[in-house]
Write a structure and sequence with these properties.
heterodimer; A: 340 residues; mainly alpha; Cytochrome Bc1 Complex, Chain D, domain 2; 2 domains; B: alpha+beta; ten-stranded mixed sheet; 3 helices
Amino acid sequence: MLMGIVLLFSCRHESEEVDFHTTPYSLSIPHGFVPFSVPSNNPMTQEGVALGRKLFYDPILSGNNTQSCASCHLVQYSFSDTTVGSIGIDGFAGPRNAMPLVNLGWQRNFFWDGGAADMESQVLGPVENPIEMHEQWPNAIAELNADAAYQELFYQAFGEREITVPMVIRAIAQFERTLISGNAKYDQYLKGETSLTPQELWGLEVFTDPMKGDCNHCHSLGSTFSDFEFRNTGLDSIAVDAGRYLITLNENDRGKFKTPSLRNIELTGPYMHDGRFATLLQCIEHYNTEFHYAPNLDVNLLTAQKGRMTMEEMQAVESFLKTLTDWEFIQNPAFADPNP
Amino acid sequence: MKRILTFIAVLPLIFTSCKEECLPPENAKPKVKVVFHTTVNGAEVASGVSFDRPGGESFQVDLMKYYVSHFALVDGTGDSLMINDHHLIDPINQKKSFSKEVEVKSGCEHVRFLLGVDELHNHSGNQEGDLDPVNGMIWTWSTGYIFFKHEGTFTDATGASLPLLYHYGQDRALVEVDLPIDLDIEEGKSYEIHIDLNLAILYQGIAFTDNNVHQSAGTADNPWIDALKQNFRGAFQIVEVKESLIQ
C-alpha cells in the first residue's frame, strides 16, 4: 500500500515536469553573417519567441491599453514609424525619432543615447516612459497575471505561471532577436544572385571612397551597416539634445548619438535622432556640406572636406542605400501581428 | 479506504519525527539572520511620522527602500562568510531582514556589505529576485539601480511643507560599509545581527531646503552624492547581536 502511495506521488511529480518543455529556436543567420550570442539566462525558444511576438503587438503593456510596441515600430517601416517623434498614449510627441528594429542581435547599447545596456533592459523604458506607453510595471504585470491565457503561454515559455517583469522582457527580447534582415538586393548581389545597376555600383564606390562619401567609416559594410559607436555628427553647433552625455555625464559625449544601421534605411525616414531630415538625400547633403563644427565633432567629419561630393555622386549613394532594402523582411509572416 | 486515509494523514508526522531524530539540533548548521532597522536616532521610520532635525526642519517618509549587497562576516585573515547577494530593504513595508544557513566560522571581526548594487549587476534589468525591475528601483531610461530611495515631504524652517525626493545611485555612489564585530559562528546555533541605519547621521550637514529633489541624473547631483556617500559609512551601526540554540 505504501509503495502505491509513493508511486502515486512520484507519478504526479513526473507528469508535472513532462508538461514543461521548450523547443529551441534556431536563428536564421543570413549567408556571410557572423552568428551573435544570446544571454545565458534567456535562450531562444519557439515558445519564448511566440510569446514575445504576441506581447510586442498587445496594447496590454500600455497605461490605457491603447498602444503596443508595434504602434511606433511598424513592420512596414522596418519596425520604425513615419513621424518625427512618435505620439504616446497621452498624445504627446517624443523628442526623438523611433529607432528601427532590425538585426538587433548584433547591436549593443540600445536607444539613441545607449541608455539601455542590453536588449532585455531596453524593453523596460518605453513601457514606463510617460510620453510613450505611460504604464507602471506592477500594473502591467497584474494585468498579465489576471489573464489565464497569458499565464499558460508564460508557463509554456518559462515554466512558471506567475508572470514577472524579467519573463516579459526576456520574451520580447527573444522576438526582437529574430528580426533579422539579410536578403536585400545588396546581399543578393554579394551572393552572386543579382547584379547592381551602374548607378548603384557607383554609389557603393562613393560610399566607400575615403575622399568622397567615406560612409563606411562608421556605417561599416556587413550585417549591421554600423559600428554602433556614439558620435557627434555636427547636426548643431551647440547640441540641442545632449544625447549620450545624459547617460555618461561625460562632457565629451555631449551631442553624441548611436550610429544607426543603414539596413532598410529607405523605409525608416524621417532621419537622425530628431527626425529633422525627411529624405536620404538631405542626410547625405548634411555629411557633404551642412555639418557644423561642434566642439566634439567626430574626427572623420572634422577632417573631411566640405563639398567633396557632387550632386550626382550623392544621388548615386542614395541609389546604393536603396539596395539595402529587404522587402522580404517587411513581408515576413513570422513578424506580423499574431493577435486576432 | 479509511485505513489508507489515516495512513496518509499520519505520514507527514512520521517523516517529521524521523527528520528531527536523524539531525540532532546540536549538529545543525548555524543560521545567521540580519535585521536592518531604519531609524532616526533609534526611532523606527514609519509612514506619516514626522521627525525633527537641526535647523528647524522636519521630515516624513512615505517610501524608503535601499539595497544591501554582498553582506559578509569577515575574519582576521580576510576570509569571508557570504550571507546574501542583493537584498532590498523596505522598512515601511516591514521587509527588513534576510537570513542564511552557513558553515561554522570563528573569529569574525568585521561585517562588510555594500549599500547599493555592484557595477557587475548595476546595468541590466534582466535580473530576478530583489533586482526584479518591478520593485521600482531601476532607472529605465539609463539602466542602473537606485541604491537608496526616499520619497516623502519635509517642512522647512518657515513651516512650509515641500516634497522630498531623493533617488541615490550611479556606480560612483556605491558605498562599502565595514563595521566591527566579535563573533564566533558555531554549530547548532542561530544568530541575529541587528543593524541600525540612522537617518539623522545620514542627513547630517545636508539641508533639505533648496536641496530637496535629487535623482542622480546630472553632474549637479555629484556634491549631494558625495556627501551622502560619506555619511552612509557612519550611519550604519550594529546595535545588537543575539545568539540562541537552534530548537
